[in-house]
Amino acid sequence: MYETLRCGKEKTKIDITVRQEVREMSAFGGGGVGGEAEDGLIESVVEDPTYKPAFGELDDLANRVEADKVLAFEANERRKSLKLEHERAPSDEALTASYNASKAIAKERLAQSEASQSTLTAKISQLSATSGLAPAVVLKGLDATHQKAETRKVMDMLKDAQTVDMCFVFDTTGSMRPAFDCLRTHIRQILTDIKKLNPFMQYRIGLVAYKDP
Q1: How far apart (Å, rounded) are the C-alpha atoms in residues 62 and 136?
Q2: Over the stretch 80-100, which tens digit does the pLDDT of each residue have?
Q3: Mean pLDDT across the stretch 140-145?
Q4: What are phi and psi for residue 159, nearest 5 degrees?
Q5: Buried b (16+ CB within 10 A) or exposed e, 9-24
Q6: Residue 204 is inside which H or E element, if any?
Q7: Strand, coil or helix: what is 165?
Q8: Fewest beta carbons within 10 Å, which of 103, 139, 149, 162?
Q9: Is the pLDDT confidence value at 18 over 70?
Q10: Using 50, 70 and 90 to split pLDDT, how confident is the model at 13?
Q11: For residues 120 and 79, is the Cβ–Cβ distance under 8 A?
Q12: First CA to last CA distance, the chain
């Protein structure tokens, strides 16, 4: 989950996958009723006109956090690569200058990443405090908002698609049996929505099921 970044003598850990962190934090002490009932509760919260703009702002901030962390990671990888080259040719002045510049950039990107993460955390706490929503509900609402935004992007792409291949991957082990009816319903609904969106689209469906050994 974490990549270790070093900037000069500093060492820190940067979470590259913010969404995974959101899900883990939501699951930790999330409480609630779980399953479809909980999904319905979260859906009603994120669509509530009182909260919807705030969740949209949080999603924008979370996207910024993800982008900043990727930039920090890439800058640090560049720094590490130049460090190895510099160690092989310490007298190369141009290489030394590039290495020193890469350290400065990596440190700057790391600071920006930490700042954007702090802003997101503060905004989540602020929304929880002003709305009365539990922090776990805010986090799950943020995740749900992001998933809806990503779904809209996919649906926009499908509007102009002529042919589409879709593959549904799911767990069919014993513990998942209670979710099978819900799974079938959602797959049918997805296909119905796509057909309404673009009646002329030709699509092929694939299924990948993970079973018990």
Answers
A1: 16
A2: 999 999 999 999 999 999 999
A3: 85
A4: -55, -35
A5: eeeeebbeebeebbee
A6: strand 202-210
A7: strand
A8: 162
A9: no
A10: very low
A11: no
A12: 28
Distance CA 112, CA 158 (A): 35
| Rounded distance between C-alpha atoms, residue 193 and residue 137, angstroms | 28
What interhelical angle do 35-47 and 135-158 show, nearest 10? Answer: 80
pLDDT digits (tens, 9 = 90+) for 157-197: 777 677 888 888 888 888 888 888 888 888 888 888 877 87
Q: Where are the alpha helices (DSSP H) in the chain?
A: 18-27, 35-47, 52-88, 93-131, 135-158, 180-197
Strands 10-15 and 2-7: antiparallel
What's the whole-model pTM score? Answer: 0.58
Residue 60, number of CB atoms within 10 A of its CB: 13
Q: Please state the φ and ψ torsions of residue 50, each to the nearest 5 degrees.
A: -70, -35
**Any residues with CB less than 8 A from the CB of 41 and at least 6 apart, and which?**
32, 33, 137
Q: Which amino acid is at 148?
A: K
